[in-house]
Specification:
- The strands form three sheets. Strands 1, 4, 9, 10, 11, 12, 13, 14 and 15 form a nine-stranded mixed beta sheet that branches.
- The protein is globular.
- It is built from ten helices and 15 strands.
- α1 packs across α8.
- It has a single domain, classed as Ribokinase (UDP-N-acetylmuramoyl-L-alanine:D-glutamate ligase, 3-Layer(aba) Sandwich), CATH 3.40.1190.20.
- The mean pLDDT is 94.
């Protein structure tokens, strides 16, 4: 077990997937648990990292089942708030190449949305932490969870803990303008930023080069994907390292891959990239490992990446043949 602890803050929910067809015509759903920060931590735990999750769960069977899911991946839950009776839910249908996946959220009033600045012992939460990870979703769910998100960012920075931030914008949760106001503040904290070209353009009104000149992040990972047809997508990634004004970068070729599962690829990418960067990997090695995890996750059903680091490493040479 690596002693570099990663802490993350975010909501985990029950996912109910329509096995075929549209949500409104489905009579049964397949259940699993997931949420972007939980998925990132589960990925890092599978790679041998020590992790700690800051979230809230109901004090009932659903909450206990969710804890069991987290424990099965080795995610630390010593700071999870257990209270109340409401777990967030989301319903999904897979869509196709011409019609994107549909998501219906049922998460208002969840125990996570009730969290506030008094919910965690910050000294306990960040004890031994080397990195704090957060995504834009955690700023969208309630005013109190947003205030807590910034309190956690302040606490991490005050303790010298590195910060990673993924925009992870969800249009069904809030508007572009509302998100931009918060993201402009959040990105100022980040040592590692995970984004797409669209994120940079819409929320920061800049591009990668402009970002590196203006913002303090050491690393900027820009991942762009596009659907090709019903069963195939493509992706390319550029990772920039700003080393005191000297910028190193590695740009991957465009890689085509098959899609069995649409959910969780970005989380596997984040977890894999953070894993490599924490070990001081060069930009090329970090991109290759993260891309391999991203592509592999699309072959793994469910929200959470279940493969280990050895399997990801073995897959890297196959990326060029895709």
């Amino acid at each position: 077990m690596n002693d570099k602890k990663i802490v993350a803050y975010g909501e985990i929910m029950m996912r109910l997937s329509s096995p075929s067809g549209a949500i409104e015509s489905s009579t049964s759903f397949d259940a699993c648990y997931g949420g972007t920060e939980a998925n990132v931590l589960a990925c890092l735990s599978r790679f041998g990292r020590r992790t700690e999750y800051l979230t809230a769960l109901p004090d009932n069977g659903l909450g206990r089942a969710t804890l069991d899911h987290l424990h099965s991946f080795g995610v630390g839950t010593g700071n999870v708030v257990v209270n109340g009776d409401t777990l967030g839910l989301y319903f999904t249908e897979s869509g196709n190449g011409s019609r994107g996946a549909n998501v219906v959220y049922y998460r208002k009033g969840s125990e996570f949305a009730k969290l506030d600045e008094r919910s965690f012992d910050l000294d306990k939460a960040f004890d031994g932490a080397t990195l704090f990870h957060i995504s834009g979703i955690s700023f969208a769910l309630s005013e109190s969870s947003r205030r807590l998100a910034f309190a956690l960012l302040d606490a991490a920075r005050a303790r010298g803990v590195k910060i990673s931030f993924d925009f992870n914008y969800r249009a069904k949760l809030w508007s572009v303008d509302a998100a931009r106001e918060q993201f402009l503040k959040a990105v100022e904290y980040a040592d590692i930023v995970l984004a797409s070209e669209i994120d940079l353009a819409i929320f920061l009104r800049t591009d990668a080069i402009g970002f590196l000149k203006k913002y303090p992040a050491r690393y900027l990972a820009v991942r762009n994907r596009k659907p090709i047809d019903d069963v195939a997508h493509s992706v390319n990634v550029t990772l920039y390292e700003n080393d005191g004004g000297f910028v190193k970068k590695h740009a991957s070729p465009e890689i085509k891959f098959n899609v069995v599962e649409r959910v969780g690829g970005g989380d596997a990418f984040d977890g894999a990239l953070l894993h490599k960067l924490l070990d001081g990997a060069d930009v090329k090695s970090a991109v290759e490992f993260a891309l391999a995890a991203f592509v592999l996750k699309h072959s793994v059903k469910g929200d959470t990446f279940t493969l280990g680091a050895d399997e990801v490493e073995k897959f890297i040479p196959k990326l060029g043949a895709l």
